[in-house]
Design brief:
This protein is an alpha+beta fold and 476 residues long. It folds into three domains: 3-287, no CATH class; 296-408, no CATH class; 417-475, Orthogonal Bundle (Arc Repressor Mutant, subunit A). Helices cover 40% and strands 20% of the residues. It has 15 helices and 17 strands. It has helices at residues 53-65, 162-179, 219-238, 284-292, 298-309, 313-320, 323-335, 339-357, 368-379, 385-398, 402-408, 417-430, 432-439, 446-456, 463-475, and strands at 3-14, 69-70, 73-74, 77-80, 90-93, 100-101, 104-109, 112-125, 129-132, 139-142, 149-155, 191-201, 211-216, 246-251, 256-262, 272-273, 280-281. Strands 1, 2, 6, 7, 8, 11, 12, 13, 14 and 15 form a ten-stranded mixed beta sheet that branches. It has a three-stranded antiparallel beta sheet with strand order 5-4-16, with no helix packed on it. A two-stranded antiparallel ribbon has the order 3-17. The longest helix has 20 residues, at 219-238. The radius of gyration is 30 Å and the shape is elongated. It starts with a strand and ends with a helix. Heterotrimer of A, B and C subunits. Belongs to the GatB/GatE family. GatB subfamily. It catalyses: L-glutamyl-tRNA(Gln) + L-glutamine + ATP + H2O = L-glutaminyl-tRNA(Gln) + L-glutamate + ADP + phosphate + H(+); L-aspartyl-tRNA(Asn) + L-glutamine + ATP + H2O = L-asparaginyl-tRNA(Asn) + L-glutamate + ADP + phosphate + 2 H(+).
């Protein structure tokens, strides 16, 4: 019997607001424990929440970007559960009347495009963080994260494989980063994912028993956890056993999931409208203002790069994954209008450095002027491509002018045609046997002559010019 997986994802995106969702405390990451707290976010009696308008604006941006339906009125609700890092013993979230419903995210896996539907987007506050003592059997609570604004994006159960799940997550992260509402940093917890996964016989329309997976903080962990869980559930069904509805944690070290608790249903949380927060009415004019300010989104930008710059699909996809990188590319092309050469350099030399440091291009000393100048130096024959690649890491690290480094390191190519012709004639006269081989039709021997000229000039000869001179002399 063949089985298929049915997967739905619940993604929490931590918003890039300066203050929390219901108070004025800072959202900055990395502060000492419990420094960014106040009576409101720690749930002290008598304190009252006040909604951060910026959170609503960010929710509208995402809703419009994914084609969701924005509800004219949305309501905050209390979601009750009891955990040490939840100071009020309830979380302010949204339930029956979220800010947006519907919409979709387009993904591509193995050349096949697919639309993953969305159930809802809603606003809520984050919980705190438990810090477990490694030496003693005690835990500490850090409330700095309590009240940090989140958007929860719930997908339809349209995902059928771990690969599709990862593609969906990557696309969603790209969108929220383009919109400037979340940095997408999974390691710091600003983008977190829970997965609901079940299996069923292929062709069946009925859903199997779903299991919720938690504790996945990277694309790789999401893929590994889903693969294991799908295999585990299929194994149970083949043995004639039942899959239990529960919440399971992913053990990164062992690559397995294990039971955490029984899976809660909505009624377990005893949702009801928060009496301290009035319903939020969304003005249509505000929606249109937000719509008019949306940036060009990844799919549209990718298609434009293909059509406007003549880039291959692969190049366009790589360059548009990051908004800063896409903007950097366009600035480079303005200065050096050869899109494919710029693309090649960015996808090799630049991305190698960015990936090594785990940075976005706007977090470095590199400027479009640096890339344009390097490519112009190569184009004009001032330096070889090898020399340009040699100095690039220093340009990237320091932001120094490429021309200065070329002069300082003595990397300027010899392009004096007269001087180079004299050296070429010398090489040919020293190697009569190889000259005869060339004359007999073995044209590949010209590479030997170029190598000898480069040796005599200590690598400073312009190889393109050397090749032209040698060909002319040999053909003569």
């Amino acid at each position: 019997m063949e089985f298929e997986a049915v997967i739905g994802l619940e993604v929490h995106t931590q918003l890039l607001t300066e203050s929390k969702i219901f108070c004025g405390c800072s959202t900055k990451f990395g502060a000492p424990p419990n420094h960014h707290t106040c009576p409101v976010c720690t749930g002290m009696p008598g304190s009252l929440p006040v909604l951060n308008r910026r959170v609503v604006e960010f929710a509208l941006r995402l809703a419009l970007a994914v084609g969701a339906r924005i509800n004219p009125v949305c309501v905050f609700a209390r979601k009750h559960y009891f955990y040490p890092d939840l100071p009020k013993n309830y979380q302010i979230s949204q339930y029956e009347a979220p800010i947006a419903e519907g919409g979709a995210i387009e993904i591509e896996v193995d050349g096949q495009r697919k639309s993953i539907g969305l159930v809802r987007i809603h606003m809520e506050e984050d919980a705190g963080k438990l810090v477990h003592d490694e030496k003693r059997p005690v835990s500490y609570v850090d409330f700095n994260r309590t009240g940090v604004p989140l958007l929860e994006i719930v997908s339809e159960p349209d995902i059928r494989s771990p690969e599709e799940a990862v593609a969906y997550l990557k696309k969603l992260r790209t969108i929220v980063r383009y919109l400037g509402i979340c940095d997408g940093n999974m390691e710091e917890g600003s983008l977190r994912c829970d997965a609901n996964v079940s299996v069923r016989p292929k062709g069946s329309q009925e859903f199997g028993t779903k299991v919720e997976l938690k504790n996945m903080n990277s694309f790789r962990h999401v893929e590994r956890a889903l693969k294991y869980e799908i295999k585990r559930q299929i194994g149970l069904l083949l043995e004639g056993k039942e899959v239990v509805q529960e919440t399971r944690l992913f053990d990164e070290a062992k690559g397995v999931t294990h039971s955490m608790r029984g899976k809660e249903e909505a009624h377990d949380y005893r949702y009801f409208p928060d009496p301290d927060l009035v319903p939020v009415k969304i003005d249509p004019e505000w929606i249109e203002k937000v719509r008019s300010e949306l940036p060009e989104l990844p799919d549209a930008k990718k298609q434009r790069f293909i059509e406007e710059y003549g880039l291959p699909t692969y190049d366009a996809e790589i360059l548009t994954v990051s908004r800063p990188l896409a903007e950097f590319f366009e600035e480079c092309v303005k200065l050096f209008p050869q899109p494919k050469k710029v693309s090649n350099w960015l996808m090799t030399e630049v991305l190698r450095e960015l990936n090594r440091e785990g940075k976005e291009i706007d977090e470095t000393n590199l400027k479009p002027e640096h890339i344009a100048e390097l490519l112009k130096l190569v184009e004009d024959g001032v330096v070889s491509i090898t020399a340009a690649k040699k100095i690039f890491p220093e340009v990237y690290a320091t932001g120094r002018n490429p021309k200065e480094l070329v002069e300082e390191k003595g990397l300027r190519q010899e392009s004096d045609e007269g001087a180079l012709e004299a050296i070429c004639r010398e090489v040919l006269s020293e190697n009569p046997a190889e000259v005869e081989k060339y004359k007999s039709g073995k044209k590949g021997v010209i590479g030997f002559f170029v190598g000898q000229v480069m040796k005599k000039t200590r690598g400073k000869a312009n190889p393109k010019l050397v090749n032209q001179i040698l060909t002319r002399l040999l053909e003569a």
